[in-house]
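Retry 2 of 3 after timeout on previous attempt. Resubmitting structure tokens to design endpoint.
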């Protein structure tokens, strides 16, 4: 899979972000996207082939693997990366709309089309809320699908067509566990960064509105 488009989106949004937003982009790009492409994808590459049960009953291994891993960790991680980055497109589209509107009317309609204020500020805040919500949803989804943030070495399966309870072994459980913890830690860090940026922008806007009212009263 090519991640060039996602990289370009994150780079584009970086132009309109605050300092906290730029840290978020760096975390997503360096500690999530690059780790996924360079290492994690290879670790889970042959997870089905390396999943072994102590019985050769036709279909048993496939059914057990599907039961314990309904969705591959690595595919869910990829989906998470795409989904949490998508709301950033709202900001890019809004800036493009402003620039297109100015070009259409052939006049200056905004002080700076790329400045995060007014409607663009609302769009930016909505994108932060969506990113935070999606991060939380995926963390809950991971927890529910795999009964916690852990990868056992051994699982016991008694689903048909297995004739009895069989032992199945997961390949490289320790290595996968380390990357799973890394995934959870970076997701939590991104949630903290998004909430920090959201609070900062709301506080900054509130102070700005308060100062405007104060100036009007004095006048």
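Retry 2 succeeded. Sequence:
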């Amino acid at each position: 899979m090519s991640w060039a488009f996602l990289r370009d989106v994150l780079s584009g949004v970086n132009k309109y972000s605050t300092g906290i937003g730029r840290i978020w982009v760096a975390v997503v790009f360096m500690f999530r996207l690059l780790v996924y492409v360079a290492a994690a994808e290879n670790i889970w590459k042959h997870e089905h082939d390396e999943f072994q049960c102590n019985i050769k009953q036709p279909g048993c291994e496939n059914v057990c693997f599907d039961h314990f891993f309904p969705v591959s960790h690595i595919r869910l991680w990829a989906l998470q990366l795409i989904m949490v980055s998508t709301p950033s497109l709202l900001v890019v589209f809004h800036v493009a709309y402003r620039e297109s509107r100015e070009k259409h009317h052939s006049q200056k309609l905004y002080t700076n089309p790329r400045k995060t204020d007014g409607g663009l500020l609302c769009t930016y805040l909505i994108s932060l809320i969506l990113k935070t919500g999606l991060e939380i949803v995926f963390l809950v989804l991971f927890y529910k699908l795999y009964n916690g943030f852990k990868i056992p070495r051994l699982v016991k399966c008694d689903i048909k067509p297995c004739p009895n309870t069989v032992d199945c072994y997961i390949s490289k459980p320790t290595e996968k566990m380390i990357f799973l913890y890394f995934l959870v830690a970076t997701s939590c860090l991104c949630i903290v960064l998004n909430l920090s940026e959201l609070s900062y922008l709301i506080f900054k806007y509130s102070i700005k509105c308060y100062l405007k009212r104060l100036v009007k009263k004095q006048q």
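Attempt log closed. The longest strand covers residues 154-157.
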